[in-house]
Amino acid sequence: MADRTAPNCHLRLEWVYGYRGHQCRNNLYYTAAKEIVYFVAGVGVVYNTREHKQKFYLGHNDDIISLALHPERVLVATGQVGKEPYICVWDSYTVQTVSILKDIHTHGIACLAFDLEGQCLVSVGLDSKNMICVWDWRRGKVLATAPGHTDRIFDISWDLYQPSKLVSCGVKHIKFWSLCGNALTPKRGVFGKTGDLQTILCLACARDEVTYSGALNGDIYVWKGINLVRTVQGAHGSGIFSMNACEEGFATGGRDGCVRLWDLNFKPITVIDLRETDQGYKGLSVRSVCWRGDHILVGTQDSEIFEVVVHERNKPFLIMQGHCEGELWALAVHPTKPLAMTGSDDRSVRIWSLIDHALIARCNMEEPIRCAAVSTDGIHLALGMKDGSFTVLRVRDMTEVVHIKDRKEAIHELKYSPDGTHLAVGCNDNSVDIYGVVQRYKKVGECIGSTSFITHMDWSTDSKYLQTNDGGGKRYFYKMPSGKEVTNKEEIKLVQWSTWTCVLGPEVNGIWPKYSDINDINSVDANFANQILVTADDYGLVKLFRYPCLKKGAKFRKYLGHSAHITNARWSYDYQWVITIGGADHSVFQWKFVPERKSKEALHIAPQETLAESNSEESDSDQSDVPEMDSEIEQETQLSYRRQVYKDDLPQLKEQCKEKHRASTTKKREKAPGNSIRLHFIHGYRGYDCRSNLFYTQTGEIVYHVAAVGVVYNRQQNTQRFYLGHNDDILCLAIHPLKDYVATGQVGRDSSVHIWETEMLKPLSVLKGYHQYGVCAVDFSADGKRLASVGLDDNHTIVLWDWKKGEKLSAIRGSKDKIFVIKINPYIPDKLVTAGIKHIKFWHKTGGGLIGRKGNMGKTETMMCAVYGWTEEMVFSGTSTGDICIWRDMYLIKTVKAHDGPVFSMHALEKGFVTGGKDGVVALWDDTFERCLKTYAIKRAVLAPGSKGLLLEDNPSIRAISLGHGHILVGTKNGEILEVDKSGPITLLVQGHMEGEVWGLATHPHLPICATVSDDKTLRIWDLSPSHCMLAVRKLKKGGRCCSFSPDGKALAVGLNDGSFIIVNADTLEDLVSFHHRKDVISDIRFSPGAGKYLVVASCDGFADIYNVMSSKRVGVCRGSQSYITHMDWDRRGKLLQINTGAKEQLFFEAPRGKQQIIPATEVEKIDWYSWTSVLGPVCEGIWPLVSEVTDVTAASLTNDKKVLATGDDFGYVKLFKYPVKGKFAKCKRYVAHSTHVTNVRWTHDDALLVSVGGSDTSLIIWTHENEGHREPRQCDSEESDIESEDDGGYDSDVTRENEMNYTIKALSASIRTMSGIKPHLQQKELSVDERQGVVRPPVSRALPQPEKLQTNNVGKKKRPIEDLVLELVFGYRGNDCRNNVHYLNDGADIIYHTASVGIVFNLASASQSFYMEHTEDILCLTINQHPKFPNVVATGQVILQTCQLLPRPFMSGMP
What are the angstrom distances between the C-alpha of 619 and each of 545, 554, 622? Predict the structure, then answer.
């Protein structure tokens, strides 16, 4: 059986030929170590020219297009393209990431620049607004953002002489920015008369507010402030692409191929014309210059780098070359020498020496080249052209042998036969031609048969067969040299192939992912000697597979570097290297092959290799050594926390429904009841799908969660207190190192993490906005300042927070597989570990990102828990097979067998560890896991007398474990919380139902007791107060959905899910009778009142059977419902039954025969019902909410005094209504504690308590009923109603008007008015009434008389320069829609207020005004800082235009 693991050998990037000069500028610099830093494709390159060595930065996953050097010249920032592009700041010595900046830009990052101190980095995006963003790059934090310009920005720079000032330039503009607070404010450069408005390509700042910029026409524009003061004309013949400032002055480089040096006052020093030098050529264009001391680096459009020494400036050194712009497809390797040949759409063919890492020959052809091949003797080089011709050159001097054109479409593949006699030429017109080499390339055969273009070809070792692949994904075989097609499978089986470069065929099946028919693998080459296959694909990945790999979806190692599609990959003749070429990035990569035995040593030499995680995640074939998955983990992996409707959607749904129902709410709605309920006690603990969610607090109370409630349990008093901030299932809980704060994460569309304190149960911080669907793991750092959380989205996003500020520090996609645990390193809070299905990953924070590496463990194990050990690099993780893995950094040192079955929870102590597993054993270990010091088995036999319940089974699966106060706290999968004394006895503190929905609920007719039955196949009896414990439990053969006490409380009837029901003794739970008449679930069961003579049993197949209890016979059947039965009630006499069905029918039947009755609605109210659990009919019309299409009211229960109706619904709300609830949409009080649907509610016999059960949250919740007079501080969301009606004491008219004001419209109408029309003094005056009647009146006006000639003719006069206007006085104050916006300043000497867009300070003594005029629109609010430290500091807020978007956010400003 072929080995299905990934190969053990490696590739290490050794050399990259080329430099990215096209479409990029200013991307080439000297570092402090005098190395050269630049980029090509997706790789940052640090090139040491003295030693001729390269180092690589591999942290990007797409083309790099911008680069900036830190002022200390060690750190480099690079920006990439892509849908979610990011910026990496990395160290040019170690080529390791220092910081990742992400989440702001889209499309790509066009420019980058560091400020003078190197603290801030500015970036410009490629999006439509060309967003400018200023970063505190070490923390990965955004300081300010602003839309840059409507057109492309080409360069941006900090003013190195004025802090917080930047300059950006681009298409037809230059802008001068100032950074104040978190706002970037631009002023456009004024070109005036001094120069033409044109595109500015580069800039450099000098002292005294002077900025030099290079323009598209070759001039240099000199700016002072924001004004153009002079131009240096004809500095270059055409566009100036690059400008670089250094101590001596400035260097500029242009499209004319010249580099010019200027002194500090921009007087010319010298010109270097690269076109005129030895290496120069016509059309050379300079894209980047860097001047350091006496060396100048020059990067060109055609991927060359020159180094010029100033005093020998006519002899530049060409230190790096690559192909020019255009796709690169042709690659061939020499059969006997370490040479590689490439040919590209730039029409050049080049020969590279793999040993010297240099270009040794180059020849320009007439046509773009698409493929190449070297003859077996190494003498001829054949090139296939795009126009359908092919050329053969002599390798030694690149002279032409022949040029043949037999085809019209591109030649995509050609190969020499192993014996050197024939050349096969594959064309895009579906044919392969065979030429005789010795006969001066005469055509000797043709292969026809393919229906699509030829993509790959291989010869057999005896040169008698040729196999081809075509674009249609088919393989063909031909006899050589005639070209006759071979179809006999047996004949083909015996052929041995000389090379394997085909992507199709059984030997290479494994390179294709399972279940895919895509053709994105461009090239394959087999290394027969080492049995390794290299592939190149459209995603820029180079992969190594074992050869042959027969099964689809084989394991591989992958390497990043090329950004987009890789067109070709070949092994060198001696299998030492792999050469790959990029299509769009037209770069040539040379990878060193590290065979198996050396790959261990290689790990230590190549630090940068580990950045690109080479072990594949995607490939997950059915490996032989993957252990069977544990059933419990399997179950948990399958759980989906996605909801059809989230609580976050409710307001929206309500709005939609409101429109529909506006008409129907004319009737005055029913008021909410005066009574209320208070959460009193919850039976349950969420253990079935959560782990490590149970802790001691500072005061020795116990904190855990169930449903949507955080619970703090006092074990001395057996009382609970609740944190009710969540509105859906809590899935994880972590405790602060000081044990007084707790973090909990919940399910939700935009799910949140709450941090709250356990004493007052107040929220301290709520973190939202980064996790979808839910938060499945949280952890505090050791100093308690940071919090890490993991989301339930498909990528399991990891976020690191500064939780007090509510600020995201870093975020990253965690893993495709589910993550179970996250832990922050207690010694270095920048490091984390996550573990989950088939992986463990070690992360460290880099700015706004995290870099993760997979733990190296041979076979992939699923990890359920992890903790850090006694030093910063030690990690211990528990696996799904019962082992503890011990890690140092990311390497597995050893494994220890700890439990039978998965290790679900572990906890680190001062000295040692404690672990808990599925086997129900708690184990204490020493600090190295050498010795197990003690084990505790959780068994019924050792349960202490003070327990609050009964253990359901021995050795329950342990899901959480925690230590403190001399005890071990244990949480089990069955929903029990136990306290284990070090000496052995175990106390059960809390318990609830196990996994499975709980529907059945009945309260005792005269005791504070209730019974529940659940899908977990148990029937339980609970004491409701004051001892709050489970009195009895019985396992059933099947799950149940309903139960009911007999009127005397002695018997209990239980309906089961298989259609049977049983009646048991209510004390001992032993069977009295059982029946099985139906096939479907029994949905409700009821004893008749009084003596309990009859029992009615309803099932989901729509029938209700009536039994005589004494004779145990069925006496009647109620037929006629169209759907399953949901609720049943008897009348007080035991003669009439009311039934609700799933089709919302309310039906009535007579007992005991079951005859259907039609009763008018008015009569139903008059009937004295023994119980009311119905949700239909006029008396409970108002309980259905607006959004009743989505949510169903599942249960109702009426108090015995018939005043209050409690309901439970599918949103997890328990609501109280005043009974009867007539009229639609009655007001109510609503309470959240359950997470999803509340399946049942019941009042106790004396109405003192309300009991509710949750469906999937498995909890039993007890509420105390408080009568009208009783007021206590509320701790619940008792929203008064679902619709706010207008009659609730309406608004004052002024308030109403202000409430309805819409400032956006106002702002728009103010600024986007039509700009056409006639000026006022030219308009036809409209005649007044008097004038029409011919009455002439003397002018009466309070204003000054108008001057005689208002419009004088200015022709003869000289134009006076326009003076600036100065604002002198503003009349008015904005009071019509603003409040609290006048204040005293300076102890009453001045007053401050606002009107229009001006802030006004009015001096009362001199009656003079001074103004703050930085706002661009109406000011709406104003406040002053009352703190003595900040006298006279004012904040004002303005409105904002929505369509123009002048500013990125409402613009706040401080007025000193």
Answer: 11, 6, 10
